[in-house]
Each structure stands twice: as C-alpha cells, then as structure tokens.
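Before a colleague's protein record goes any further, I have to sign it off. Would you go through it and say whether the fold makes sense for this chain? Take the sequence as given and treat only the tokens as open to question. The record follows directly below this note.
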Amino acid sequence: LSATDRMPFPERNRCLILMAFIHGFRASELLGLRLSDIDLAGRQLYIRRLKNGFSTCHPLLPDEYNVLKSWLRARKYLEKGADGDWLFLSLRRHPLSRQQFFYILREAGRLAELTIAPHPHMLRHACGYALADKGIDTR
C-alpha cells in the first residue's frame, strides 16, 4: 500500500486497494459503492454482491475506517460537479471505471517492484486465502 503514496490521489488509491482486499470485492462491486452505503458512525459498509452473492453489511475495520476517512476528506475537493454520490471518483469527477482501477493497481504494483502485474481479481483471491488461513469458510 505504501506505493500509493507516490501516485496521484494516494488517499483514493490506498482506500481502493485496501477495501478490495478486506472485503473480497469484485471490481464492479467496489466501484459501485456509493456514499450512502457507508455508515461512519456505525462503522459499517453495505455491500451489494453480484452474481447471486449475498448482499449484507460488513464492519469497517479500524485501519480501513481511518483510510476511508482520509479518502473522504480528500474527496471533498472533487464533490463539486461530481457525477452522483459514487464513493470512488476519477480526476474528472466521474465514477471510477474498471479500466482505471486496473491501471491504478498495476501502477501500484510497478512502484512496489512486484515481480508480477497485479489485477483486481487477485485481491479477491487474496481475501479468500486470508480468510481460509483464519479458518473462516467462505462458501
């Protein structure tokens, strides 16, 4: 995640990558999040799962909560003229696209000097492995 500090909009990019990993999001699920899906006071996030998934509320973990608050503070500069209440916005104030997320993740991987080029679905699989290591059944 530290590689995001050397990229434009580090708060957004750090939040994107962390949330994708923690919740095992598909790219479309992550990019479909809206401000109204976030309950900061209750530290919860409503997740709409795709492909017959089970939509539910997830707790916001402490690190995730702090990173999300940091992004929301930075996001205020993009709100004027923004296209809807999407959580993740591009520099042009439009919802972030899957292609943009792919590029952000690939660039973060390059800056982190990873030997493989990461893609969004890798974070979903990494989440599954992390949960399995903790003995949590994801089926």
